[in-house]
Amino acid sequence: MIELLTAAQMRAVEFAAIESGAVTGLELMESAGQGVVDAVIAEWPDLGEGTRRTVVLCGPGNNGGDGFVIARLLAARGWDVKVFLYGDPKNLPPDAKANYERWCEVGMVNVRAINPAPLMDDSLSIPEPFDLLVDGLFGTGLMRPFCGLFTVIAEMRDLLRERGVRVVAVDIPTGLCSDSGRVLGTAIPADLTVTFHSAKVGHELSAGPEMCGRVQVHDIGLSHQGKGCALPKEGAIVQRLEHPGPAWLAKRASQHKFSHGHALILSGGPGHSGAARLAARGALRVGAGLVTLGVSPAVQMEVAAQVTALMLRRVADGAALEAVLEDERINALCLGPGLGLGDHAAALVDVVLASEHLSAQRRVVFDADALTLIAQDPARIAALNAHAVLTPHGGEFARLFPDISGKLSETPDRGPAYSKVDATRAAAASCGAVVLFKGPDTVIAHPDGRASVHVAAYDRAVPWLATAGAGDVLAGIITGLLARGSDPMRAAGTGAWLHAECARLFGPGLIAEDLPEQLPQVLGALGT
Q1: 27-42, pLDDT tens digit by residue?
Q2: Whether 526 contacts 494, CB under 8 Å
Q3: Residue 373 needs a FRET pair 20 to 30 A away by CA distance; which of 172, 252, 288, 380 works?
Q4: Each residue of 352-364: b (16+ CB within 10 Å) or e?
């Protein structure tokens, strides 16, 4: 996994490194500026040829200091550079002021006051044409909605793109909250974002991928070691899910089917069994030793005509489910896909929520209709524990956690804005279960505060997952991993990664039935 830092965590890392004497603030700023220049030339090799024109926008903090370094380095390459400072140079922080003064030895600065005054047509006097716009206005330091003079750049973005102007953001596009990926006021979209030491949470969530373009992380020589600063505890750092590794997913020749668990997927009524069958297929393909569909008598023939490797058990009511669960080899359950919202479905949910069933020996995925049923009764929410995984989409999350969802949907008026990570952590702490909050920016949180992010964006975008039944397959994959002995947090994260990888492998035209059938190739590519 890769760490995603908040602005405060990044400041703590920088402070610790500077306090340790390992590096100075000026050295960090110089390295950051050089990293942006190197990234620009690597991204657009044509800009490394001939004389180019650039506009560098510098803000009133250290992000602006990075901008002055970039301006100086580009000028040294023979570029025609025009610099605008948003603020008063007398108020710049020491390191930024030092680089402002270094730039003034090379070129001039157009100083613009910080205010929300109406724009004049010639207020920026931006040269035309030019090749590159460097956004060094606020970076991770933005604490209030971005407004005023330079918002004209956000409004001009489409026009600049038509004219071939490339935009590079220093650390994060101005107007984008680095802790949440939410836009504060307005924002300047970038084609390339160069950030330092580690990606930030805001690069991954919400509008982050849309606004950042392509993200490159540049090493500026920081270390997590240092004196004089209490760095965040490991559990407070958000992890970005990456390649899960083959070791724990592999099967060994000495094992048998019960070594990989027995999953029970409960089905809905007539005409609604397809969702459970999709989930069951996902559980089986991801390696669960046995998968049984629990069906009502009315749907038994419908399901029997559609399955082969899957087994069937009649589950007429809650008492019948209690009898089925006497088999201790059933160690993972999935409720919700196509389950329905009637008394029969509610009875099944109540049986599974009994404490003797929801345990380390029998973990449960609650999805779809089961989530709605849980949301209807506070006693059901109270019965949850860390052996359960909830997999809500936005609407289901709002039903389960209306206050948290309401806070997330508010338009932010300051930074750092409330994020999807904040919301998912709060939800997990509130209900005591692992919560997987679905979306292109899927967030998974444990009640103890651990959180991870799986983003289907940038080079891992999978728009084809927007198809009916895809979520049912995800629930089944997670259930299969639970059956194989994974803890809920790991199962949820690995399931999200595998799910997206299956969609990427298949590509356009994907339907939910295709997802489980990609798992053998995806697992094989992992070396399992």
Answers
A1: 999 999 999 999 999 9
A2: no
A3: 288
A4: bbeeebbeeebbb
pLDDT of residue 393: 97
The residue extents of the domains of the chain are 2-230, 247-525
Predicted TM-score (pTM) of this structure: 0.93
Nearest to 173 by CA among 227, 136, 132: 136
Report strand pairing: 330-335 vs 262-266: parallel
Two structure tokens written together for 416: 């750092």
DSSP one-letter code for 442 = E
CA atoms of 445 and 450, how far apart (whole Å): 6
The answer to whether the 2-230 and 247-525 domains have the same CATH topology is no
Amino acid at 227: K
> CATH for 247-525, among 2.60.40.10, 3.30.300.180, 3.40.50.10490, 3.40.1190.20?
3.40.1190.20
DSSP state of 357: T
Q: Which of 190, 136, 157, 219 is nearest to 458 (CA)?
A: 190
Task: Give me the residue label for tokens 């724009």.
Answer: 119
Beta-carbon contacts of 169 under 8 Å, excluding residues fewer than 6 positions away, are 135, 139, 188, 190, 192, 193, 194, 212, 213
Longest dimension (CA), the chain: 84
More confident residue, 120 or 456: 456
Q: How far apart are CA 381 and CA 376, in angstroms?
A: 9
Cis peptide before 463 (omega within 30 of 0): no
Sequence-distant (6+) residues with CB within 8 A of 379 are: none
* Segment (H or E) for 208: helix 208-212
* Overall CATH class of domain 2-230: alpha beta
| Residues β-bridged to residue 53 | 80
> β-strands 363-366, 388-390: how paired?
parallel
Over the stretch 379-420, which tens digit does the pLDDT of each residue have?
999 999 999 999 999 999 999 999 999 999 999 988 899 999
Whole-number Å distance between alpha carbons of 323 and 217 = 55
3-state secondary structure of 417: coil
* Cβ neighbours, 10 Å, residue 242: 12
What's the rounded Cα separation, in Å, for the pair 349 and 174? 47
Neighbours of 385 (CB within 10 A): 19
Comparing CA positions, the residue from 300, 246, 230, 290 lying closest to residue 264 is 290
The tokens for 161 are 């793109």
Quick one: pLDDT at residue 304?
Answer: 76
CA atoms of 269 and 477, how far apart (whole Å): 22
To which residue do tokens 């393909």 refer?
A: 285
DSSP state of 261: -
Separation between Cα atoms, residue 73 and residue 168, nearest integer Å: 15
Yes or no: say if 32 and 62 are a contact pair by the CB < 8 Å rule: no
